[in-house]
Amino acid sequence: MAELAAGLMNDLASELPLPARALAGGTCLVQQRTAQRQAENLSGQAGPHDSRSCNHRAWHGPQFGLTALLYLAGQSLPVGGFAWSQGLAAAVERGHADTAEGVRRWLWGVLRMGFAHNDLPLLLRMHAAACSADADALSRWNALMLAGRESRELWQEEIQMGRALRRILHDQNMLPPWPLPDTAGYTACFAVAAVMLDQHARSMEPCCDPAAQQRDGLDAACAYVWSWLQNQVAVACKTVPLGQTAAQKLLLEFMPAVPQLVVEAATLPDEDIGSSLPGLALCSAGHERQYTRLFRS
């Protein structure tokens, strides 16, 4: 996994279209385009813009599993994520995140200190376990994930959202043929759902390339973070309250950081997995006695 993360940027750069590769390599776009046209003239081939009609052959459709990840990250997925704030509502009540800047600092802290060192490394390992149908490994990593939920409400959120996602997979006949843990949390079920929906998108043809499986895991981790960010910003809109313009500004600010956090998580060895967020835990625990509550956590 570490080797994959180390080579991720090089692999992605090689797959980018010409303008993006030129920007990544610091090459002038004009020089790149000129060289391409000269090569096309020498070979007698027409360039992509030499015809007035749309060259539909240039695009062969999205990567397998993209629509599945869009589905999993969508806010319309009925797993009940809108009902939980993960301590953010209490942080707003206590003045830790009662402004747009306060929300930004709060989310950055949770992402950098929590997701990058706990949630994402465990998600990647559970995705790999689901790809190889390793029920024991999935159960072990799921138990570690549940142990890291530092309050009753955070633990209940993980369990109940996991049950809801598991029910969706069951109703669509997409549960894996091997048994899931009885206490499979949301993160474990998200990893399994990403694998099963990816296989469904491939017309049930499993992906046998280990490198492709790991890349799919990184994509699933990005979808997992983005879904969480959308939910947290929605919570802030209701509790701060945060305006829609400020909310979109926050999402756009975090957008380029998502793949960076995922790559960082992919390089984390097993012995370094784990984190503790005392402020989040205290806010979550105090939320039970909060006078006015819009959310379940």
The level of helicity is 55-70%
Number of helices: 14
Structural class: mainly alpha
Overall mean confidence score, pLDDT: 80
**How would you describe the shape?**
globular
**Poorly predicted segments:** 2-6, 8-34, 44-56
Computed Rg: 22 Å
Helix and strand pattern:
HHHHHHHHHHHHHH
Strand content: under 5%
Q: Major sheet, described briefly?
A: none
Number-wise, the strands total: 0
Cα-to-Cα separation, first versus last residue: 33 Å
Please render the helix and strand layout as text.
Layout (H helix, E strand, L loop, with lengths): L1 H5 L1 H8 L2 H8 L3 H15 L22 H8 L14 H6 L6 H32 L3 H13 L4 H20 L14 H16 L8 H30 L4 H11 L2 H10 L11 H9 L11
Summarize the structure.
The chain has 297 residues and is mainly α.
How would you sum up this structure, described in words?
There is one protein chain. With 297 residues, the chain is mostly helical. Helix content is 64%, strand content 0%. The chain has 14 helices and no strands. It has helices spanning 2-6, 8-15, 18-25, 29-43, 66-73, 88-93, 100-131, 135-147, 152-171, 186-201, 210-239, 244-254, 257-266, 278-286. Helix 11 runs antiparallel to helix 12 (244-254). The longest helix is centred in the middle third of the chain and has 32 residues, at 100-131. The protein starts with a helix and ends in an 11-residue tail after the last helix. 33% of the residues are buried.
Key words describing this protein structure:
single chain; mainly alpha; disordered N terminus; globular; 0% strand
